[in-house]
Amino acid sequence: MRTLMLTGSLLLLTGCAGFGLPRHDPAQAWIDLDSKQEDTALQALEVDDKTAADKRYFEVHPGSHELTVRYQFPVQPTNIGPDAEPLWRDCQLNVKFKDFNAGQRYQLQAGNIGFRPWAKLYDQQRKVIGQGTPAGCQRT
After folding, report:
1. Is residue 78 in a domain?
2. H/E run at residue 3
3. Considering the domain boundaries, does residue 125 fall inside one?
4. Which end of the chain is more exposed for a tag (fewer CB within 10 A), N or C?
5. Strand order from edge to edge, sheet including 63-75
């Protein structure tokens, strides 16, 4: 019985490993996505007005690109009113950067201050190299 459980567990872990992120192509730039707050979601939507291949990251050719992300977050009652429930926002932000380099890893972080979302693009040395501009929000 233990052997069966161990074998089943190993098969389950092996299956889950197949859903990880793909290997980084050294001929392209890789942009990781990270939301800075709990209970939020950050997704890749578009690269240069074309649908992103995977919502978990961006992988782009060297050069200039515009990235569009979807950021979903709750606005806490302290920003609304004393008796309010959290209000969910669903926003899009655009980040333009003109000098993505092959083989480099970047990180796009998003957060919010009250109702206002923000996004920052960092290089490998954690230097801010781009800022997001809001492209519209709606309540969910």
Report:
1. yes
2. helix 2-17
3. yes
4. N
5. 50-51, 41-47, 63-75, 87-100, 128-139, 116-122, 105-113, 29-35, 57-60
In angstroms, rounded to a whole number, what is the distance separating the alpha carbons of residues 91 and 80? 18
- pLDDT one-digit tens code per residue, 12-41: 444 444 467 778 788 999 999 998 778 899
Residue 139 pLDDT class (50, 70, 90 cuts)? confident
Tell which residue, 91, 98, 102, has the closest CA to residue 35: 91
pTM of the model: 0.79
3-state secondary structure of 111: strand
Domain that holds residue 116: 26-139
Of 21, 31, 55, which Cα lies nearest the Cα of 106?
31
Asked if the structure places residue 21 within a domain, the reply is: no
**Cα separation of 30 and 37, whole Å?**
22
Number of domains in the chain: 1
